[in-house]
Amino acid sequence: MKAVFMMTAAATLVGTTAFAGGHVDRTGWPESFTVGTASQGGTYFAYGSGWANLVADELGVSGGGEVTGGPMQNMALVHTGDAAFGMTTMGPARESYDGTNPIAPGLQMTNACAMFPMYQTPFSVTALSSSGITSISEIPDGARIGFGPAGSTSDTYFPRMMEELGVNFERRNGGWSDLGGQLQDGLLDVIAFAAGVPVPAVSQLEVQTDVNIIEFTEEEQAAIMAAFPVAAFNIAADTYTTLEAPARSVSMWNFAIANCDLPESFVYEATKVVMSDNERMVNIHRAARSTLPENWDKNTFMPWHPGAAKWFNENGASIPADMIHSGM
């Protein structure tokens, strides 16, 4: 059963001039919308619920964040129109476009369009300090590792990365908050996070206990970059109180997505709300420091929604016509 958390700013006021964008043609606008996020305790839920609430506030359309299984499921929900908007990482997006999304093998999910760049998702490992685990090589044989919700970016890629690095493990899945509790209770040895930083579940763990945030060695980082669609990334020292220096990692870009059939004016206005005031987004989550117009070019394959492309091209981007969804 889907758990829907609606952050409603006001009653639906489609057609009103009392809200930003009220002067535009609202023909075909939905009376409400949802943003597909991920599990509670992860960055997607905090970030996605926040920007859903912001758009609802500014446009006067009831909207909120929806708890989902993460990027793979969000691609499916947005493709089918079960969610107007969603959040995905570019690896799962590519697999979904190619028809290899495990939720619906063989279905090319081409009715999900790029909306705006969000942030980079670092891959990081956390263990309790009491475990004595301070490096990937020290993870014991058969360790119980939590990889996040089934089908999430973390669950899709991190097990493969661990195997690439020679780690033998028992695979566990669950929401980030639940996995954090299991780590504290000794039911897990390690959590392998792929989420925008700071990850709420890690920040909560730091308050309650002593943790080790484990970075990759240069050799491990190079091996992962050679095998997977990720780039080098450093988790800044001020991200967590536990860190005393930047932590070496790898990352994958995240994008907001929109159902390609949504009205151009609606997606244009929603994109404008998110992208025109970065400070508001950073107040929602610090990962939004990368939610900037100049990062439009981090999408190299997914067609843009015409409404989003219009806003970006008006604000310094140069999205070519063949990268804009035509509906044909």
Core attributes:
10 helices; 11 strands; 328 residues; D-Maltodextrin-Binding Protein, domain 2; single chain; alpha/beta; disordered N terminus; 2 domains; 32% helix
Mean pLDDT: 91
Basic shape: globular
Rg is 20 Å
Tell me the number of structural domains: 2
> What is the name of the CATH architecture of the largest domain?
3-Layer(aba) Sandwich
CATH class of the largest domain: Alpha Beta
Structural class: alpha/beta
CATH H-level superfamily of the largest domain: Periplasmic binding protein-like II
What is the number of strand segments?
11
Describe the structure.
This protein folds into two domains: 186 residues, D-Maltodextrin-Binding Protein, domain 2, CATH 3.40.190; 132 residues, D-Maltodextrin-Binding Protein, domain 2, CATH 3.40.190.10. Strand 6, helix 4 and strand 7 form a beta-alpha-beta unit. 32% of the residues lie in helices and 21% in strands. Helix 5 runs parallel beside helix 6 and helix 8 packs across helix 10. The chain contains ten helices and eleven strands. The chain is α/β, with parallel strands linked by helices and 328 residues long. Strands 1, 2, 3, 4, 5, 6, 7, 8, 9, 10 and 11 form an eleven-stranded mixed beta sheet that branches. The N terminus is likely disordered.
